[in-house]
Amino acid sequence: MRARLSFRHGVHPPEHKELTAGVPVRRMPYPEEIVLPLRQHTGKPARPLVEPGDRVERGDKIGEADGFVSVPIHASSAGTVKEIGLWPHPDGSMAEAIRITVDAFSPQIPRPRIIPHWDGLTPDQVVKAVQRAGVVGLGGAAFPTHVKLLPPDDVVVDTLIVNGAECEPYLTTDHRVMTEYPERVQFGIRIMMHTLGVERAIIGVEKNKPDAIETLERTLPDDLDVTVQGLTVKYPQGYEKMLIHALTGRDVPPGKLPMHVGVVVQNVASLACIAEVFETGLPLIERVVTVTGPGLRRPSNLIVPVGAKIRDVLEFCGGLLDEATEIVFGGPMMGGSQPDVDAPIIKSTTGIVVLTKKESRPRRTYPCIKCGHCLDACPVFLNPSLLGILAQAGRFEEMEEADLATCMLCGCCSYVCPSNIPLSQMFALAKAGAQRRKQQAA
Amino acid sequence: MSTAPILTSVAILGGVGFTFGTLIAIANRKLKVWEDPRIDTITDLLPGANCGACGFAGCRAFAEEAIEGAVAPAGCTVLSRMEVEAVAGFLGVEAGEANKRVARLLCAGGSDVAGPKAEYYGVESCAAAVAVGGGGKGCTWGCVGLSDCAVSCDFDAIWMNEVDLPVVDPEKCTACNDCVEACPLDLFELMPMDQKLIVQCKSLLQGDAATELCSVACDACGRCAVDAAPGLIEMVSGLPVVDYTKNELADPSACDRCPTGAITWVEGAQFDLKTDLDSGMTMDSEAFDRRPAMAGSEVA
User: Which CATH number characterizes residue B167's domain?
Assistant: First the structure.
């Protein structure tokens, strides 16, 4: 099938990427304290392996994966375990977290370790190594990577899609990884193709990142079928199903995974992380985070140790301006507002966006005028207007019949709504309710 | 035009009707199930809300059980005392002494004592606020104050007071469980009125970490437990748990030992009932106006 390099519907919000698109990645110094929540990924939280008072080195495993859909947690800095207790989690709740007082004089050298050469490993061994290193999808959903690498026997995967779309406004994390660490991305692709046994890989990058496309094309391997494709600049181009449609013309049916149409999607940052695991033997303990927004003094792209508090990161970026009103984790379209600056950066944090009153002022909600803008914007062809009316009436069962499960909460409907109806928040609520009903029934 | 077709059809339909009518009459005679006529009378005396607070499937089911003698008329918590007497008088039984149950809020952290950590803009519902980031209150276990419970109450027994806590009127509360299900933080619990020692806090934090967020939070000092009657109060993961099977041992002295007031002795309503009743409002209208209308930023 022909690649369309785009998809139907969607929106194009102002990008605001110019704040950090050209800013090279810097390393943030270690803060005084690191807080590592045991739940940083989709799936079961990890089990703590350390006790308060224990000395840990950088890269030590401090939390064990609990089950298959789970990954271990590693110390992102040398120091002493201060406490294992409740701490604000970026999802707004209080969650179990391991607090480590950073050893300010430590050279932060990890313990000696054996780095296996990827070429000599069977796919199963690679997958195990990826899980051991605690690698999760760094695009924002934090789904454990190793789960995606083990397709069931009846599924044939023929294409690896590399997600460099980064369609959320403000964020430039993947952009900087692609321009500064293209070799790492290519090495990650090589390992993934070996593991999955696929012949073809396509890197999808939105056309608003010409330098990233150029760098990746320059570093393409000669012996593998890897191509770079420029994509139409449109939100949510980076959502798996949209990306697969744009690059291969295949459509993932509702309730199915990309692997059911022969595709595995990996984010560029996750691939760079996998490459790092096999280059240095270090687990996922730091990541590139875009710290940006009009409310921030010095927007930057930073390598941040996982577990650094928002407070410390913002301080390193010059602090907040007086107009700052809201801190959002992830992009402004799908990200969650942070009620607490003590919450830590976790593995899934792609960026911190500081908004001012101008962007985040509360606006009055008006009744739905049935204009149909949301229908034209919804990338999964739902009827957000109808769903919104059902949600307001509390008719959640009917919403489920109207394919609420297909909704991925991209926020396009809320974005275009002229009546400012918080549609996607209502859908998030309905989805949470549906999940709770399902649990009660089980 | 001949009248024959008309007469034929009338005869056929009449015949069919008569035959089936006879069959139904016979069936009624042969297959009749006798039902106590008092069931209907009692059902009429009951409130008819089918709230289920009595523990039966509805008012009619309760009426059947009451006639059987399985439950005393006072088991219906919605009826007033006089109405209970009426039912008892009709059945010729003792009215019984039902332990009236009411919904109790396990949080006393109003907006005056539990400070905010952020402002919440979005759908005006506790469930929505909790789903996207815990609402604005510093304490993540405490009442969000967006009145999901008051909306769910069919008996007008709950309204929000000036510090955004739901006030439950024990007179009106029927213990129907609607608010218990509505609260996304599980802060409501149905308790018999004679359980007067109530822990009004669910915060799992301990010590200063808890009281920093809310001055009436339980800081897990355990003073209420140590000097209480043996086995009455036990500390479980930083919160006192009252063993209500030993309820007769409970006394208000535990509250005097509590430095924050998280454990309280409740007679009647938990919070001041008068707040809005005088003005006839069920909600603080000024506070309602102060709230921004809806989401400005997308937090979903």
Answer: 3.30.70.20
